[in-house]
Structure prediction request, 181 residues.
Amino acid sequence: MNKYTFPAIVLWAMGIGAAHAVDNAVFERVAADKYEDMLRNGGVAYDHKDYPRAFELTRRTACAGDKTSQALLGRMYLLGQGVARDDFTGYAWIKLAAEFKFAEFTSLARKLEEAIAPAQRAQANARADALRKQYGMAATNINCRGASPHGVYIIDAVVCKPSSDGGGTVLMHRCVGIPEN
Prediction:
């Protein structure tokens, strides 16, 4: 008897790995528009300095693999906005965002790395590696691309989309072991 269920085989055939599709402990199905709302509302809450709400929403989309959310979550940890200040965790999230080679993310990660004392750099990078294994592009099965939302030729944003199950929902990687605030 095959260890995969029929729906998992259908999802795999649609391009979604069966291991991700059937592991409800790791992934949750969320309406695509709800995911987009989380991204937008997290940014709006941050802009309005509602840091607890921004942290809650941004944490979920960062765990789902969204690179802009990961960079924002890192900033919130570095500044203690909506969460207790934690420089290493902030650096780790920003370094994870830099997994997608976007200049804004890579430049900030490099500056932060240079600011870390050499004796502590190994600890900070170990935290970043642990996050990458759990919330990196390969682990979350997210697809990211550079975008130019202002209609010019300069890529000034990163757009990430979680895998879709084809029915108007996306498979959003859950946060595991990340405090809610």
